[in-house]
Amino acid sequence: MDVRPGDVWRFVMHGPDGRHKIGYLELIRSKRLDYRRGSENVEPVSLEVRVKFEEDEGNIRLTTRMRFPSAAERDRVVKGI
Q1: Which one of 11, 23, 49, 69 has the fewest beta carbons within 10 angstroms of its own beta carbon?
Q2: Would you say 20 and 39 are in contact if contact means Cβ atoms under 8 Å apart?
Q3: Percent of the chain whose predicted confidence (pLDDT) is above 90
């Protein structure tokens, strides 16, 4: 996979959400990946994600943070409805 800011990854998720699209925002090699996830369905789920990679005593710590457009949208996604 060749990840670069401005590129897009489209994929099909087998479940209620269907087709999705990832748009890469920023990549700092071995440190951080920022992307926007959006759905190509009638009811989109759009959010921004930051993935951080940090070395911790010889291990890699991965931290993921998701930013939803609202608390209600976050709650809807967490409940799977």
Answers
A1: 11
A2: yes
A3: 35
CA-to-CA distance for 4 and 33, rounded, in angstroms? Answer: 10
User: Pseudo-torsion of CA 69, 70, 72, 77, nearest 10°?
Assistant: 30
The pLDDT of 11-39, averaged and rounded, is: 79
Q: What is the pLDDT of residue 52?
A: 96
Angstrom CA distances, 2 to 8, 24, 41, 60, stand at 10, 11, 25, 21
Chain centre distance of CA 24: 9
Residues β-bridged to residue 35: 24, 49
> What's the whole-model pTM score?
0.71
